[in-house]
């Protein structure tokens, strides 16, 4: 119990006494006028003082008081009225001082064994409690003196403060007593830190005593903080070796909670800030780098949300903690993401892994790092850094990933889920520098989807275009949007072409032409065909018709994207086969003979070897086997022979036989990439000419600097030099004759 608590309780007990004394005196003892007062004589003064001294001694010795308390209170008032207050105050102080001086011997003579430290503390606390209660009782008797003479003399301490001063001077300030008291308190705190149970009320009372006596900081706090620093320095070193990071973090959190609880329970409030700072410094600050190096990557790999949240909260308390965590977080993202991007064998899963990784890091920033803007920006910077360490390839793979999601037959997601996937892809897309590579591959794949009607949803396609337009501007998507306009125009052209086919001699045996889709310079015919010669004739008619309507264009046929419907007779009955153009060419051969070798089919159709084997495999090894292969097997070899399967049966009348799709060839990838690089050269040349035309004369470094500001794709300095040399050779600019690092524009 602190001194303030004791004083409060004792005051409550004696307030009634004081009021009673005053009221009684007014009825019985109060002198109505000066003549009624007792005559001031040495004898009266001495007798009164003896009476008061005996009462004080009885209080100090915890014995009964012989006199009525009201009478004692009136006696003090009478003495003060006779102007003997200075003498009365001096005598009272001396009596109290003599008593306190006599108390010091019990502590000096107390056994010094460590086993007696707790009993020593209890005796000290009992002495302090007795002193406080005695001082309050004495003050109640001498209340008139305290409220008149002492109050009017600012240099004199009150009776309560006098009691504190005497106790501090004669007991607590004694070197041996103070040292033993503080050491005993520190020993009890250390035991509690080690898990033992201690008497917290005893510690609260003793530390309250030191605080009331104004020796708390000098005698206790400094030593306490020093011992705390020593304890946690050793503990931090030991536990960092013995425990893993999650366990260590929980230990630190528990220690901080314990120290805060000590402040609430018995330490002075002023100790909280330096105490917590000491614990944080020794358990966190000194081991911050070791904690991050040893545990951060493991916590992130295992997605330990609870421990990551705790790590963030703890390091936010340490100076420079969050900045150190931020750097380690950035390094982790660069390293982990770099492994995803730089591994060609993982190209198939690259985009999905990037999306999953981004989701995971977003979750960490939101749940663990309190959506800290610095951490969000660092994550974006790290993603942009590692994703562009492998130029062009991520852009190409993202375009192909989008194609796989927008292609018909993708049943992995609903429209809402698909929209969310596209939003996530756009986040990854923003990090890419070479967006022109993405555009080239996306354009090629979009053309295929539109030409063969393989787009899963027109709404999804337009939603993706809208996202690209918002991100990169209208110029980026103008050609892509043009494809949809071409598809609308091709419908009108198809109506006109059907009318032409009816009038052309030689194509009458073709029942009807289903579609002829065009995208500016590409055309795919999808027909119901009877013979190859008629297909060639129809193709020529289509070419003449198209070029007659669009002069100056070059018509490029895409035979791999075309398909037809063949009417076929089996033993079961008539069927319609929906097949690709190459499948059509192969199947039409069996109108002439029932069996062919691979070489015979290759010679007759002229289909490239790899494409031919995939075509035969789809007809003889798939679900709908309209051809039989000898010998049986999944792969097609040059020695294999094929014959028509007249026993083929199927529950449907129209059967779709899917062509085995060949993944994009290396040649196609190289061709698309080369087109991108060629376009980049044109853009670099155009930018150089614009800059020089505006500036007329410019140094090499300034020219390169302005060029980098205008270009939207990464380019190497060596490539820029080549383009500059090319423009000099073509007389668009020239070098200064005296300074080769300076260029002039040639009008």
From TrEMBL:
Keywords: Biological rhythms, DNA damage, DNA repair, Host-virus interaction, Isopeptide bond, Phosphoprotein, Ubl conjugation, Ubl conjugation pathway. Pathway: Protein modification; protein ubiquitination. Residues 393-620 form the Cullin family profile domain. One of its GO terms (cellular component) is Cul4A-RING E3 ubiquitin ligase complex. GO terms for biological process: cellular response to UV; DNA repair; proteasome-mediated ubiquitin-dependent protein catabolic process; protein ubiquitination; regulation of protein metabolic process; rhythmic process; ribosome biogenesis. The keyword 4Fe-4S does not apply. One of its GO terms (molecular function) is ubiquitin protein ligase binding. Belongs to the cullin family. This is Cullin-4A.
